[in-house]
Amino acid sequence: MVEKALFTILLEGVFVKNFLLIQFLGLCSFVGVTKDVKSATGMSGAVVFVMAMAATVSFALFNYVLVPLKLEFLRTIAFIVVIAALVQLVEFIVRKHVPALYRSLGIYLPLITTNCAVLGAVLLNVMNDYNFIQSVTFGVAAGLGYTVAMLMMAGIRERSNIVNVPKAVGRGVTYAFFVATIMSMSFVNFFGVIPLE
Predict the structure, then answer these.
(1) SS in 3 state form for the chain?
(2) How many CA atoms lie within 13 A of 49 on its CB side?
(3) What pLDDT sits at residue 192?
(4) What is the chain's mean pLDDT, rounded?
(5) What is the pLDDT of residue 178?
(6) Rounded CA separation 162/139 (Å)
(7) Which one of 39, 101, 135, 167 has the largest count of C-beta atoms within 10 Å of its C-beta?
(8) Do 84 and 57 meet the contact criterion of CB atoms below 8 Å apart?
(9) Distance between CA atoms of 105 and 93, rounded to whole angstroms?
(10) What is the number of other CB atoms lying within 10 angstroms of the CB of residue 45?
(11) How far, rounded to the nearest angstrom, does the alpha carbon of residue 141 sit from its chain's CA centroid?
């Protein structure tokens, strides 16, 4: 099997296989936290950290514990435990050092534990048989792709608060999904034509 170049993995994680706009994973926080750029930035930073650390710890756990003990069937449960522990760490740090951000994120910060984008990143690392460096690269790239989509959506939603949006489009969640649809179509049409293999 030919190993993918790190740059290819980076481009796939950020653009071509973007978890929010291409694979539609993690939409709860995408719609809920993108009302303003500050909250979207804080949430994105937390997700990048959790994805990168989850990729690192899950690689070691899978390859050095589960595979030697022939317990690969427990990978999903093991990865969820790792992600939950990392989210608790992030939540503790944010609550202690940035209480305003902690309050603005509300329930969405602990929901990173059940964010299928984070679990999807670590499961895809195993399914693609990535080595350690590739796994970490993909974890960081997936987090950066999440950040790109979150900041674009937050910027559009903030701007729409000061311009006249037609009533037919709606407001709130309806408007967020309308914008997400347009963004997704743009990503698919633009990045779907780039051959990375």
Answers:
(1) CCCCCHHHHHHHHHHHCCCCCCCCCCHHHHHHCCCCHHHHHHHHHHHHHHHHHHHHHHHHHHHHHHCCCCCHHHHHHHHHHHHHHHHHHHHHHHHHHCHHHHHHHHHHCHHHHHCHHHHHHHHHHHHCCCCHHHHHHHHHHHHHHHHHHHHHHHHHHHHHCCCCCCCCCCCHHHHHHHHHHHHHHHHHHHHCCCCCC
(2) 19
(3) 57
(4) 88
(5) 86
(6) 35
(7) 135
(8) no
(9) 13
(10) 17
(11) 9
Give the chain's largest Cα–Cα span: 60
The Cα 16–Cα 10 span in angstroms is 9
Contact 33, 40 (CB under 8 A): yes
Residue with tokens 């514990």: 65
* Both tokens assigned to 29: 């926080």
Per residue in 105-127, pLDDT (tens digit) is 878 888 887 788 999 999 999 99
| 137 CB burial (10 A radius; 0-12, 13-18, 19+) | buried
pTM metric for this prediction: 0.86
Burial grade of 164 (CB within 10 A; 0-12, 13-18, 19 or more): exposed
Q: Between 14 and 166, where is the model more confident?
A: 14
